[in-house]
Design a protein that fits this description.
Layout lengths: L2 E6 L7 H18 L1 E6 L11 H17 L7 E5 L5 H10 L4 H5 L2 H12 L6 H15 L5 E3 L5 H18 L7 E3 L34 H9 L17 H14 L3 H6 L4 H27 L2 H30 L25
Parallel strand pairs: 1-2, 2-3, 4-5
Helix pairs in contact: 2-11, 3-6, 3-12, 6-7, 8-11, 9-11
The chain binds adenosine-5'-tetraphosphate.
Length: 351
């Protein structure tokens, strides 16, 4: 069976972009067709300026929203990255396989480090190296597929390259993963600046629809979306980025095709109204389930506990195999656990 792994970073409140680009596909398709793991990648949340209490809150909120989006723990595994040590263990190995040139080429690093510097902040080393951790996240589970939005494709390609390089140098250890993405909605743009991605840690709030926005707030944001000069409703990312973004959001929410939808509108006003309705109706069931789950925090805790145990059991042998393949000496078993230290087979010191 195909193995799928993907995750969300708790660096802000989750957005419509996260939902349409990734989460919806996980719940509607991936968990039914694959052996799937979904992770709140909290270690990645440490790569930028953060407040510890907020990170904890956002991690719990992201877990609750994943469940509210329809993930079913009978079908898939939901867990928090820092609860499974194997991610950090394998990350170091990935750093020892990657080159600094590869890391510096990552678009997210270039954009985010420029933003941090612009705001007078320093850039954490982990912002540069986090794609190695992301490669570890994926490779530790022998994932065949990684369903992500367009912005994460480059990182999955790096994970592929590292898997191939590791296998070539040290013997076949990792499954080589590939990125998958939804036909529509893989790059939802900021409603106030449709040339920029709708990102959860951007500061332009009015251009971002958060999954927990009240219906009237979400509606207002869509109605106030920046459109393009001209009046024709045309699907063209280059020349009509604002209208194209609305058409893609509408198509993603209703299951339509953006080009076909464009032909059925003669005004921006009608397109905005229908898009606002579609967004509100898409978020409604998710918000209702989120509300119900918040009333039962013990349930979310139990999901995360079981999820981490399942994930650990899957990742451990793969990471142990990678450690052995790259030349790290296996830790002697503790006395009483299997073979005693004193009776371990003599090491071949000549190798
Ligand atoms: N705007 C988007 N359109 C489509 N897909 C998107 N995703 C994120 N934004 C959009 C996809 O959602 C999944 C989880 O994303 P993430 O938590 O890793 O966040 P990110 O995309 O790396 O960065 P953000 O949202 O800009 O947050 P910050 O600013 O905190 O880094 C991924 O599959 C992603 O592609």
């Amino acid at each position: 069976m195909t193995r799928v792994f993907s995750g969300v970073k708790p660096t802000g409140h989750l957005t419509l972009g996260n939902y349409l680009g990734a989460m919806r596909q996980w719940a509607a398709v991936d968990q039914h067709q694959a052996d799937a793991l979904f992770c709140i990648v909290d270690l990645h949340g440490l790569t930028v300026e953060h407040d510890p209490a907020r990170l904890r809150r956002l991690t719990r909120q992201a877990a609750t929203l994943l469940l509210a989006s329809g993930l079913d723990t009978e079908l898939c595994t939901v867990f928090v990255q820092s609860h499974v040590d194997e991610h950090a263990r394998l990350s170091w190995v990935m750093e020892c396989v990657a080159t600094d040139g590869e890391m510096r080429r990552m678009i997210q690093y270039r954009e985010k480090s420029a933003r941090e510097r612009e705001h007078g902040g320093s850039v954490r080393l982990s912002l540069l190296t986090y794609p190695a951790l992301m490669a570890a996240d994926i490779l530790a589970y022998a994932a065949d597929e990684v369903p992500v939005g367009e912005d994460q494709t480059q990182h999955v390609e790096l994970a592929r390259d590292l898997a191939v390089r590791f296998n070539h140098r040290y013997g076949h250890t990792f499954v080589v993963p590939r990125a998958t993405r939804p036909a529509v909605g893989s790059r939802v743009m900021n409603l106030q600046d449709p040339t920029a991605k709708m990102g959860k840690s951007d500061d332009t709030g009015p251009g971002i629809v958060y999954l927990l926005d009240e219906p009237d707030v979400a509606r207002r944001k869509v109605m106030r979306a920046v459109t393009d000069s001209g009046t024709e409703v045309v699907h063209d990312r280059e020349t009509r980025p604002g209208v194209t973004n609305l058409l893609e959001i509408l198509a993603a929410c209703t299951g339509g095709d953006p080009e076909t939808l464009a032909a059925s509108y003669s005004s921006y006003g009608a397109l905005k109204r229908d898009t606002a309705d579609a967004v509100v109706e898409t978020l409604r069931p998710l918000q209702e389930r989120h509300h119900a789950l918040c009333a039962d925090p013990g349930y979310v805790d139990s999901v995360l506990r079981d999820g981490a145990a399942r994930a650990r059991a899957m990742a451990r042998p793969i990471v142990d195999a990678a450690y052995a393949a790259i030349g790290l000496l296996p830790a002697p078993e503790a006395e009483g656990a299997g073979q005693a230290v004193g009776t371990a087979a003599p090491m071949d010191l000549a190798r």
